[in-house]
Specification:
It is built from 14 helices and 2 strands; from the N terminus they run αααααααββααααααα. It is mostly helical and 351 residues long. It has a two-stranded antiparallel sheet with strand order 1-2. A hairpin with a 3-residue loop joins β1 and β2. α4 runs antiparallel to α11, α7 crosses α11 and α8 packs across α9. It is globular. It is found in: Cell membrane. InterPro entries: ABC_transp_permease. It comes from Acidisoma silvae.
Length: 351
């Protein structure tokens, strides 16, 4: 279920707004049929799984299910941090490039003899630094999140290519690659376990802490949140740092899985992350969303990609369908918001 707090439904003067003035989340029309947006997407996910199992005998095998979960881990982990950002009304387009940069710098240091621990720490620090730069630019300098993260995306991509002359870095420590490619408990990928832990930790932070309530409040109405004593700029800064932490973990996973840091590592991840977040019901207008919805969105994208691959669908068509999913989800969000806004304008004023 999408989460929200009371302060997100207050006007600039702090007065409570009527329930129908709350901002809708993406897919709310579908959600009305099943009780929530997340429930609607979950039903769609189940239907798609049934169809794919009928079309491909290998879809529901244990190996393929593990493959879907493992391949979705990078997007899933990154989407946890991205959900925090989007709930505040922001967006982070730099996550894919930051994954590549953090992985490349960490791999170069491991190659230079700093070991798996040193390389992992540096990978995390680089990713957090990118998040901090985004946070300072948005919260402190008041720049538009779209422009800021688009710029940091370009800078990170350039630095990744420059760091090793556009070449990949191989021969990484086995203990490092184990986190991306190893398995435990009879074949469960470690990356899947890490993803579950990140989602659980993110869910607790978002729904069970004062900080989580502040995240929803900032996204619902920044001015009302400020009047309520919430440090809006600090919350905004911290959600981008959280996004950076998730990027760092995802970078360790993807480099470990491939066994090398590549110049194109993380390319395109940002699109799948945004798609998962919006499809899962988090509103791009802020104030509404849930990590449960994001998880369902991640699984939906992973299942579709895997199923289309099993059916030998052209990869270019798969990319088209990913982008189409984003378009449809954003369209639902925009149409619903416009519809509610028009309804508010037509509401008669009470004397």
């Amino acid at each position: 279920m999408a989460q929200s707090v009371n302060i997100s439904t207050r006007g600039k003067d702090g007065a409570a707004l009527p329930p129908d003035r709350e901002r809708p989340s993406a897919g709310q029309l579908l959600g009305g049929l099943f009780g929530s947006t997340t429930s609607a997407i979950a039903v769609i996910l189940v239907v798609i799984c049934i169809l794919l199992s009928l079309l491909s005998d290998s879809f529901l095998t244990a190996n393929n299910i593990y493959a879907i979960l493992s391949q979705s881990s990078v997007v899933g982990i990154t989407a946890v941090g991205g959900t925090f950002v989007v709930i505040t009304g922001g967006i982070d387009l730099s996550v894919g490039a930051a994954i590549g940069l953090a992985g490349m710098i960490g791999a170069l240091f491991m190659q230079a003899g700093f070991g798996a621990v040193g390389g992992t720490i540096l990978t995390m620090l680089v990713a957090m630094a990118v998040g901090a730069i985004n946070g300072i630019s948005v919260a402190g300098i008041k720049l538009a999140p779209f422009i800021v993260t688009l710029a940091t995306m370009g800078m990170a991509q350039g630095l990744t290519l420059e760091a090793n002359g556009g070449q990949s870095v191989y021969s990484l420590p086995a203990v490092f690659t184990y986190f991306g490619s190893g398995t435990v408990l009879g074949g469960i990928p470690i990356s899947v376990i890490v993803t579950v832990i990140v989602f659980a930790a993110g869910g607790l932070l978002l729904t069970k802490t004062a900080f989580g309530k502040s995240v929803f409040a900032v996204g619902g109405n920044r001015e009302a949140a400020r009047l309520a004593g919430i440090r809006v700029n600090l919350v905004t800064f911290l959600v981008y740092v959280i996004a950076g932490i998730c990027v760092g973990i995802a970078s360790v996973i993807i480099v470990g899985r491939v066994g090398a840091a590549t110049p194109t590592g993380g390319v395109g991840v940002e699109l799948r992350v945004i798609a998962a977040i919006v499809i899962g019901g988090t509103s791009l207008f802020g104030g509404k969303g849930s990590l449960w919805g994001t998880l369902v969105g991640v699984l939906l994208i992973g299942v579709i990609n895997n199923g289309l691959t099993l059916l030998n669908v052209d990869p270019f068509l798969v990319q088209f369908m990913q982008s189409a999913l984003i378009f449809v989800a954003v369209l639902f969000d925009a149409v619903n918001t416009r519809r509610i806004t028009r309804g508010r304008l037509k509401m008669p004023r009470k004397s």
